[in-house]
Write a structure and sequence with these properties.
single chain; alpha/beta; Rossmann fold; Immunoglobulin-like; 2 domains; eleven-stranded mixed sheet; 12 helices
Length: 489
């Protein structure tokens, strides 16, 4: 495995009550005594990065005189550790990625370590769970996996985005990198938040009231999948693990927190990679609800780690509405943009330019992993690199024209070398019309004959975005909508 450099390192476990515990690693020895329930924890002093494989030994002096029990972990490095979570676009494996044939054979970096957590019900879609799935449908049994060296046989099944990110960071920082991957396809945001946190949030309490399978506050599609997986067993009277919120399932509010991050914390991390939102964007009310859910998730995870963990996340990609409920994706992407620009220690990678018209799982993940790594290099590792596409600062009226000023706007251009697409203007009636666009340095000038007095401007406001604005680093602008203000004299 990899332990996080330059941070205190909690090491914890379970033994018999009252036993004396010693932990040895890197010339450190820490001791403690297990409490009345057998739980124990020590904290190793922060260590610098090291690519030297070392061993960690835990010794328990048992309550029987002279009896000693040891546990030994080997091949441990010290470097950067990131946790990757979310739903299927984060889970999407390297084996299915666009560049897999080229990349998998070269997966042989001895300084990258991968912890790929498989889960109960993985790849069970609209079919009933079986005996094995129900046996593991508990917080303690849901995820399983072991740390592995980077190799073609291990990388192929790992998250493509997380893998590409780890490779970029390892090459940039020149230290070992460990990635813990626990994404769950289809999972909604509320499944990744502590039940208690949801219950204490006035606008979100309804998510944890009564049986989740019949709770109208949740998404219809999520409850449908729950019924498809669980109903046969429930109808047959089989014992299904659960509680007062209903049977356990990876879409149940709070369950994935209990099974994943809640069990990983407080393992020392540098930060979190997050790609999720599709399951919270299918209804307008759910988009609005997500505006409260995601900030709560970030606060809740940071509280569990007692640290301001950086959260680097992927904005939703583009997809048409044919066969998919993506009508509210522009608003969702704009919401994500605002998160990245207003919440502390958050960073966003735009993905709309790599979406597919009829597939919610775009195969191009290498570029997305690279963009997340650029965000990390700039915002976490304090490097002077461009990490964002053009960001709108203000839209100012100049008669019938609108001038948009951007940050990260050096070298404004189009990704395809053609005219600028995706800008629209609206007047007092709120009806948007396509705008004629001119690029002038780090600003954009807009006009529309049908809108003599512009009040709002938006960009890329289609489920399958037509926007093609980029900066000198070829990083794309996000979907956005902002008001037009009067230009100051």
């Amino acid at each position: 495995m990899v332990l996080q450099r330059d941070q205190s390192l909690p090491i914890w476990g379970q033994t018999d009550a009252g036993e004396k515990i010693s932990v040895r690693f890197a010339d450190q020895i820490k001791t403690t005594t297990a409490d009345a329930t057998g739980k124990w924890k020590v904290t190793l002093t922060a260590l610098p990065a090291s690519a030297e494989p070392r061993s960690l030994t835990v010794t328990a002096e048992e309550n029987v005189p002279g009896a000693v029990e040891n546990r030994k972990l080997t091949n441990i490095l010290v470097g950067e550790v990131w946790l990757a979570a979310g739903q299927s676009n984060m889970e999407f494996p390297l084996a299915r990625e666009l560049h897999a044939a080229q990349e998998i054979p070269s997966a042989k970096n001895s300084r990258i370590r991968l912890l790929n957590l498989a889960f109960a019900g993985q790849y069970f879609f609209n079919k009933p769970f079986g005996t094995n799935e129900f046996a593991r449908m508990t917080p303690e049994g849901f995820f399983w996996g072991d740390w592995k060296n980077d190799a073609p046989t291990t990388a192929r099944d790992f998250s493509a985005i997380a893998y590409y990110f780890s490779r970029e960071i390892q090459q940039d920082q020149q230290v070992p990198v460990g990635i813990i991957h626990c994404a769950v396809g289809g999972s909604p945001t509320e499944a990744w938040i502590r039940r208690q946190a949801l219950a204490c949030a006035p606008d979100l309490q309804s998510l944890v009231r009564g049986n989740w399978l019949t709770n109208p506050a949740l998404d219809d599609w999520c409850r449908q999948r729950g019924h498809e997986n669980l109903d046969a067993a429930l109808t047959a009277g089989r014992a299904v693990p659960g509680d007062d919120l209903g049977p356990n399932h990876h879409f149940k509010p709070g369950f994935l927190w209990d099974a994943g991050p809640g069990r990983i914390a407080p393992f020392a991390l540098r930060g979190v990679l997050w790609y999720q939102g599709e399951s919270n964007s299918l209804e307008e009310r759910r988009v609005q609800q997500h505006g409260k859910l995601f900030p709560l998730l970030v606060r809740d995870w940071r509280a569990a780690w007692s640290a301001e963990l950086p959260f680097l996340f992927c904005q939703l990609a583009s997809i048409q509405t044919n066969g998919y409920k993506s009508a509210f994706w522009p608003a969702f992407r704009d919401q994500q943009r605002k998160f990245a620009e207003t919440l502390p220690h958050l960073g966003m990678a735009v993905t709309s330019d790599h979406g597919l018209p009829n597939d919610v799982h775009p195969r191009e993940k290498r570029e997305i992993g690279r963009r997340l790594a650029l965000v990390a290099r700039a915002q976490v590792y304090a490097e002077n690199v461009e990490f964002s596409g053009p960001r709108p600062l203000a839209a100012m009226a100049r008669g019938a024209e609108v001038e948009i000023i951007f940050s990260h706007g050096v070298g404004l251009a189009t990704s395809d070398g053609l005219g600028v697409n995706g800008f629209e203007l609206a007047g007092d009636d709120g009806i948007f019309y396509p705008a004629t666009t001119k690029l002038t340095g780090e600003t954009v000038l807009l006009s529309a004959v049908a809108v003599p007095s512009p009040r709002k401007v938006r960009y890329g406001w289609q489920p399958f975005s037509a926007g093609n604005l980029v900066n000198h680093a070829r990083l794309p602008a996000s979907t956005f909508e902002i008001p037009v203000i009067s230009k100051q004299p």
